Amino acid sequence: MTNGPPGDYWHEHFSADEFYILPVIMAFTVAYSFLFLGIVICTIELKSRQLLHTTYKIFVFSVLIQLFGIVVVSSCYLKLAVSGFLSTKMKRFGLMLMGTSETSFVLLLLLLAKGYTVTRGTLPLTASVKLTIFMCLYSVTYVSIFIYEAKVFDPGEVLYLYESPAGYALISLRIIAWCMFVYFTIFTLKHYPEKVSNFKQGLIYHQRFRYSEI
């Protein structure tokens, strides 16, 4: 059973809820490729000025892993469009790469909100411990989603990866992370008001918590 005539590349082998996945993810592949090219140029410039901070390295890692994940998932859906076969293991691997990217980006935002590399070179021990515990919990919860999907999910009944106890827990952790980001930012600006200009972009980046894929 197909959802389009033979040769209909965009619809034939896709279910109704998957019709627009392939063009969207291909567009993201192109966008992230250009983004990574720009990052490489900026990295070379920052390295020449000895300004290649840890936070920027985390950002580069996040974008690179996200690009790899998108490429893997894109290849899976391209194969589905051509042959009608979807490699669930490869797709899951691609999604795990994207999850790793998101986790590292959340860590980056929380570090910047604490003022790391902006107002200070090191974090207090208590802050480091709290962040470590939270990110470990975040990572374990994310991994639990994929384990739950592999062992329990019925593809015929479950459409979205987050329709699981672990998925709901991750959504809750994202909300907590957003609250932590806002609190850390306010606390940092209270003690370093002269750094307001450095945190203006945070108004854009904090939307990552609100509009993460659910």
UniProtKB/TrEMBL annotation:
InterPro entries: GPR180/TMEM145 (IPR047831), GPR180/TMEM145_TM (IPR019336). The keyword Membrane applies. One of its GO terms (biological process) is G protein-coupled receptor signaling pathway. Keywords: Membrane, Transmembrane, Transmembrane helix. The chain crosses the membrane at residues 20-46, 58-81, 93-113, 125-148, 168-189. The keyword Transcription does not apply. Residues 34-198 form the GPR180/TMEM145 transmembrane domain. It comes from the Eukaryota. This is GPR180/TMEM145 transmembrane domain-containing protein.
